Amino acid sequence: MLSEAELIRLASKGDEAAFRELVRLHEGPLAAVITAMLGPGDDADDVGQETFVRFFNALPKFRGDSSARTYLTRIAVNLSIDVLSRRKKTLNWVRIGETPDDANIAARDETTDLETTDLNARIRAIVDELDPAHRAVVIMRILEERSTRETSEILGVPEGTVMSRLKRAMAKLETRLRPLIAND
User: In CATH, what class is 1-99?
Assistant: First the structure.
């Protein structure tokens, strides 16, 4: 079996089999990050595909300063944040221009999320309420169990920023989760 560095070298020269192997190696962990950021669905699928397209296009310039997984995760998180920003703009537009017929548009109703009987769905809804920057840190540090340094590298922010975002996010989560845990 070839090393990741060798696969990258071959893929950067157009070896499709080497690139397919890189995709195979990284698609599972990457899908988990993207789904944690966006939830399952078309947006997550699109971000996954676009991540690998961008990676393929960047291969000739990839220096290997970080692992391919770290590089791919950074692309995926940035693309996911873009999608979340677009969703927020769309949701705001729907609320402003909404007519009675538009009320059935599938914009998330936070109240409905909290009323579901599945605690995991309610927790996911609360995590989804975090702004994208804080959500990315929670996903990297808590769900992905990455170090502060790795998270810093992936998100392109200083380690102190990672720690302060995590602290703020965890305080918000604790405040929002406390009533749910007390009731279940």
Answer: mainly alpha
